C-alpha cells in the first residue's frame, strides 16, 4: 500500500459527495498514524460544514482518545483540537485531494491543524488556485508537505465543477436513470438510494432544467423531499409558453420556487433531467452526465443514441450502479 493507494482512498471518498458541496470543492482526506495505520477517511460534505481535513482529524483523535468531546461546530472544533490534541497525531501522515486552505472563511484554515498537531507528512493531489491557496508553501516551509501532484489527474477530474464555478462559469450536469437494458422509460427506475443522491443534488443547485413534454406527460413534482431539502428553481424548455401549462401539475404547487422558460444568466450550477429526446438535444452542451443503472431488464424501449462516454467515476447506490461521465466529442 503506497502513497497512491492512500490518496486514491481520499479521492474516492470525496467523489461520494461530488456536487453536494456547491459552491465549495469536493475534497477527501485520509489520516494515518506514525506507524502508517489508517485512522480515518473523511470528506467535506456540504458548504458551511467542516472541511475534509478537520473531519478526518476529529475522527482520528476520537479513535485514539474516545473521551475527547470535540464540538461539532467547525470553528469551535478547530480551536478545541489545537488546545487538546495531546500530541496524539504527532508524526502522523495525511493525504488530501486538494491543498489545505490557508485562510479563515466560514471555517478555519486547515493548514494550522497539520502544523499545530505536528504532522510528519502531508501529501497533496492538486493545488488550490483561489484565495484559499498557499497551504502547500506553508507546509513545505515547515518540511511537512510532500508530492503536490500525487494522483493529480484524478483530483483535477474531481475538481472540474469547482474550477468552473471559480471562473464564474456555469456547470451543466445531465441526470439520467436507465434500466439494465438501457431504457429510460418507466417509474422509479433507480433505487431509493440513487433517488436520495439525486434529491441531494437538487437541493443545492441553482436551477433544474426539464422539457415541456416531461412536464405534460409525467406531471412531476421535481422537489428534494427525500432529503427534506429546498426544491430547486425550475426552467421548462418548451415550444409553448409557461402560461399554457396546467398549473395543477405538482411542480407548480411549491411555494418559493421560481419558474423560467429560459436559463438565467447568473446560473452557475444546473442539472438537466429528461429522457432520450432531451439528451439528444442538449448532450453537446453538458459538462458531465450522471447516469444511474438498475439491475433489471424491462420490456420498455431502450435508448437508440450512439454516444461515446468517458467514465471519470463509478460507484454503487442501493443495488444500482452509477457513473459520472464526460462525452467524448
Mean pLDDT: 92
Strand content: 15-25%
| Unreliable spans | none
Number of helical segments with 4 or more residues: 9
Strand arrangement, largest sheet? 9-8-7-10-6-11-13-12
Quickly name the level 1 CATH class of the largest domain. Alpha Beta
CATH architecture verdict of the largest domain: 3-Layer(aba) Sandwich
- Tally of individual domains: 2
Overall shape: it is: elongated
Output the structural class.
Answer: alpha/beta
- Output the helix-strand order: HEEHHEHEHEHEHEHEEEHEEE
Major β-sheet annotation: 8 strands, mixed
CATH third-level topology of the largest domain: Cytidine Deaminase, domain 2
Short description:
Pfam families: dCMP_cyt_deam_1 (PF00383). The chain is α/β, with parallel strands linked by helices. Helices cover about 25% and strands about 20% of the residues.
Describe it.
- The protein has 329 residues and is of the alpha/beta class.
- It has two domains: 164 residues, Cytidine Deaminase, domain 2, CATH 3.40.140; 158 residues, Dihydrofolate Reductase, subunit A (3-Layer(aba) Sandwich).
- It contains nine helices and 13 strands.
Task: Give me some keywords for this one.
elongated; EC 3.5.4.26; 2 domains; Diaminohydroxyphosphoribosylaminopyrimidine deaminase / 5-amino-6-(5-phosphoribosylamino)uracil reductase; CMP_dCMP_dom; Eubact_RibD; 5-amino-6-(5-phosphoribosylamino)uracil reductase activity; Cytidine Deaminase, domain 2; Dihydrofolate Reductase, subunit A
What layout of secondary structure does this protein have?
Elements: H1 3-15, E1 28-32, E2 38-43, H2 52-64, H3 74-84, E3 93-96, H4 111-116, E4 121-124, H5 135-141, E5 145-146, H6 152-166, E6 171-178, H7 192-202, E7 207-211, H8 212-218, E8 234-237, E9 259-260, E10 269-273, H9 276-282, E11 288-293, E12 309-317, E13 320-327
Parallel strand pairs: 3-4, 4-5, 6-10, 6-11, 7-8, 7-10, 8-9
Antiparallel strand pairs: 1-2, 1-3, 11-13, 12-13
Protein name: Diaminohydroxyphosphoribosylaminopyrimidine deaminase / 5-amino-6-(5-phosphoribosylamino)uracil reductase
Domain CMP/dCMP-type deaminase: 1-137
Pfam family, one: dCMP_cyt_deam_1
